[in-house]
Design a protein that fits this description.
By secondary structure, the protein is an alpha/beta fold. It is built from 14 helices and 35 strands.
């Protein structure tokens, strides 16, 4: 048995008070003379003896009352099992960003937890190894400095990492002080580790909300800079409804737009924010939310990069109506470098670095192109002629190819509009009422391929083949086979096909390990630097014909705009934001953690709320029964 607060035994000096009361409360007996009545003497002697015993019992009760009261303040605990009492402890202190939540009194959980842990460490006689999300500290209980504990960390530590660290240091006991954010802790790791003892101390937040930006995308009207719209998806991971919330869009220090919103608890809402047009569209942006008390994710960064000019080569054998349609489509020289060539007059070197090669209405594919198709870095779009030979196209597509005998034009399936390839081409209301184009496919296909567009009868219209960059638009763009060139779906479909294979996304998350960037070339053995206003790193990278793949350093943990430079040249701009998992403030409930503790003898659970925090004690030295409670 041990005492968590032995200083209380200084109060034993108070036991002298009952003794003083006992000694000075005797009454002097006054003698009264009676006549010779002998039996009254016996009565007197018996009553005097009974009174003495009663006074002694009162004294003992008073002494025991004070004694047990002092022992209760000393907090005696009874050891369970054969645990080395001098064994030091490993404490994991959660200082992640979700600890910005406040309790019912309005105080951040982090500061409450820090004060509690500091008090425990200072009262502990053995050394304590304290592990937080960004540091590991050895404490001896003398001059405890909690300043390190009161700093939020953007790093996260999983229960698996805690178990690994415990095994590395050889501890058998771990105390975990956290809000136990649901998506940050897999309790299975400690449930399986029955050879160790785990004490779970949960900081319980009050009822609140956290609004954060879940995702965003832009809709560029007609593929150019007219009527550009930013779509922002907001999520509320709390139970409290937020009304009259404010979202601001800024470019540099200039505010471009603002929107108010109302979002229910556990709800989502989508906002539309207008963007600038023309070249003013491109650049670095910041979205700012007015939301408290969890404020770390109130800023969201993204970057709109001006698309590179897509290089397109159309190969045909003679003149074709399909080529005429596509030449008119790709006339905007700001976005497209379009060339129309004869198949027998081109060269492989001309096609190697092309973003899109279109084989337009070829009766058969040349053998030289079939044998060297892998050397083309971009996409290859095949548009067969009415008399194309199935055997030649079968070699190109590596699937079974046969002639489609049906001469009926079939409408496009409405399900095709839901394919991610067409994401953002239509709003939901538009997709419900748009009339769909009709097709008469040239080929019937069999084998492994992905249908992007298909008819109501599941005949392939636009298909992608395996891990290759080959696509087929299974109908020439002529009357009698399709009205696709005259349909609103034609422009976004062909623009998507013409996009570079690697499109730099609007934003990234800090939990992404690798990032791929579209870069034309890079000097061998070049030293790249990834820098923001406050941080700078030299990332590992790999360059191939598919682009530049960066390995993001784990030390990079601050959101913002980062510039990828090679000496003095900026070759990329990346916008980074916090992981979505940190913004989701859902925690394990009291009932869930209590159940885990009840079902596992090596796990104990101790909820810490506003009232109990000041007197909470992390029992680090032994699994103990708190006798003082009784």
């Amino acid at each position: 048995m041990t005492f968590l607060n032995p200083q209380a035994f200084w109060g034993l000096s108070l036991l002298i008070i009952p003794l003083i009361i006992h000694l000075f409360s005797f009454r002097r007996y006054k003698k009264v003379l009676f006549s010779n009545l002998t039996f009254l003497t016996e009565v007197k002697e018996q009553r005097q003896s009974s009174s003495t015993i009663k006074k002694i019992l009162v004294l003992v009760c008073r002494l025991l009352f004070l004694l047990f009261l002092l022992v209760a303040f000393a907090q005696p605990t009874l050891n369970k099992g054969d645990v080395n009492f001098s064994e030091s402890a490993l404490i994991y202190f959660d200082n992640s960003l979700s600890m910005q939540q406040v309790d019912d009194a309005g105080e951040p959980l982090l500061f409450k937890a820090a004060n509690s842990v500091a008090s425990i460490i200072s009262n502990n006689e053995q050394s304590v190894k304290l592990m937080s999300n960004n540091t590991i500290i050895d404490y001896t209980g003398v001059d405890t400095d909690i300043s390190e504990l009161q700093q939020f960390s953007s790093h996260r530590t999983t229960l698996g990492s805690i178990v690994d660290r415990k095994n590395l240091y050889g501890y058998k006991r771990v105390s975990i002080v956290s809000d136990f954010q649901r998506n940050g802790f897999d309790l299975g790791f400690i449930e399986k580790d029955t050879g160790s003892i785990y004490e779970l101390y949960q900081l319980i937040p009050g009822t609140q909300s956290n609004v954060f930006i879940d995702s965003l995308w832009i809709n560029i009207s007609n593929g150019q800079g007219d009527g550009n719209v930013l779509f922002v998806e907001l999520n509320n991971s709390g139970v409290v409804e937020i009304s009259d919330g404010l979202l601001q869009l800024k470019k540099g220090e200039r505010q471009l737009a603002s929107r108010t919103y109302t979002i229910a608890g556990e709800g989502r809402v989508r906002l539309e924010v207008p963007l600038e047009t023309g070249d003013r569209l491109y650049g670095e942006y910041t979205l700012e939310l007015s939301d408290a008390p969890v404020v770390f994710d109130n800023f969201f960064y993204f970057n709109i990069i001006k698309p590179k000019q897509a290089r397109i080569v159309l190969l045909e054998d003679g003149e074709s109506s399909t080529g005429d349609y596509l030449e008119k489509l790709y006339t905007n020289t700001e976005y497209f470098d379009f060339t129309r060539e004869q198949i027998n007059a081109t060269s492989l070197s001309r096609l190697t670095n092309t973003d899109l090669v279109i084989l337009s209405e070829l009766k058969e594919v040349p053998d030289w192109l079939l044998s060297q198709l892998d050397l083309i870095n971009g996409k290859v779009l095949v548009i067969p002629a009415t008399n194309s030979l199935p055997d030649s196209y079968q070699k190109l597509l590596s699937v079974g190819v046969s002639i489609n005998e049906s001469e009926i034009q079939q409408p496009l399936s409405t399900k095709s509009l839901e394919h991610p390839f067409l994401g953002g081409a239509f709003t939901k209301s538009q997709s419900n009422r748009v009339s769909l184009p009709v097709f008469r496919p040239v080929f019937a296909l069999s084998g492994y391929y992905e249908n992007i567009l298909e008819t109501n009868e599941s005949l392939p219209v636009l298909s992608h083949f395996g891990n290759t960059s080959v696509y087929i638009l299974n109908s020439p763009l002529i009357d009698g086979f399709t009205n696709f060139p005259k349909h609103a779906l034609f422009v976004p479909t062909m623009y998507r096909l013409a996009q570079n294979s690697i499109q730099d996304p609007l934003f990234h998350r800090l939990d992404e390990e690798f990032v791929q960037i579209g870069v034309d070339s890079i000097v061998n053995n070049a030293i790249l630097k990834l820098s923001s206003v406050s941080q700078s790193f030299i990332p590992s990278y790999r360059y191939s014909r598919d682009g530049l793949t960066l390995e993001i350093p784990s030390e990079m943990n601050q959101p913002g705009i980062y510039y990828l430079t090679n000496d003095t040249d900026t070759i990329g701009v990346l916008a980074y934001n916090y992981s979505l998992s940190e913004s989701d403030i859902h925690t394990y409930s009291n009932e869930e953690l209590s159940q885990v503790a009840n079902e596992n003898a090596h796990i104990s659970y101790h909820p810490i709320n506003t009232n109990s925090l000041a007197t909470a004690s992390l029992n680090m030295n032994n699994e103990a029964e708190s006798l003082w409670k009784y």
